[in-house]
Amino acid sequence: MIRVMIAEDQELIRQSLEIILSNKPDMELVGIAEDGLKAVKLAKELLPDIILMDIRMPGIDGVKCIEIIKEKHPNIKIIVLTTFDDDEYVFNALKNGASGYLLKGISSKELVDAIRTVYNGGALINPNIAVKVVKLFSQMAHIDYRFKVDEKTLNSLSKNEIKIIKLIGMGMSNKEITDKLKFSEGTVRNYISGILDKLNLRDRTQIAIFAVQSGMILNGIDSKGDISEA
Fold this sequence. Notes:
This protein is elongated. The protein has 2 domains: 2-140, Response regulator (Rossmann fold), CATH 3.40.50.2300; 151-219, Orthogonal Bundle (Arc Repressor Mutant, subunit A), CATH 1.10.10. It has helices spanning 11-22, 36-46, 62-72, 87-95, 108-119, 127-141, 151-155, 159-169, 174-181, 185-199, 204-213, 216-219; strands at 2-7, 27-33, 50-53, 77-82, 100-103, 124-125. The protein is of the alpha/beta class. α1 (11-22) links the parallel β1 and β2. The chain is built from 12 helices and 6 strands. A 6-stranded parallel beta sheet has the order 2-1-3-4-5-6, sandwiched between helices.
């Protein structure tokens, strides 16, 4: 049974989604949130498999909700269902961990198929949105995002800091890193703060980019997929 939660501020759309999901034998609607604050609260309480997330909601917008929920509950999969295809919304939603980005107006069959696809580990993006994503990555390929870090600074990183840089570069959340390294979440946050300070980086996205650019990921994964000590 696929446990689905709806986060949508428009009552008519909430009701429509509820009707679509109600007669699907493999789906269960477990909760409905009318604003971002409630969406975050219900996600924590209900731990649904899938959240259908609107972008513009009172309290906390959908993009920020995705970031908060995925940070604390990485196994919850989120499908953005919105009328907005603005480049910034698309990029930030996908960057924060959305597994799908669909525009309202799709058929009920397309929506149900999307939920099943994402639940089974796939990702689904509306064709119009996909064009934007391809164009965005094409633009990024022609921009120098390289972060310059001197050798002395690199040598100042501890083994644990290097491990965490590698794991962030692999796309892991703080929770996943704590499970991997058996640290507390507070310890991981402290390490990340130290890394940002030492490398003069702004956020964990820049840490991930640095991990790829520096070759840490390719050089630090063994044949079993585990990270090496150096």
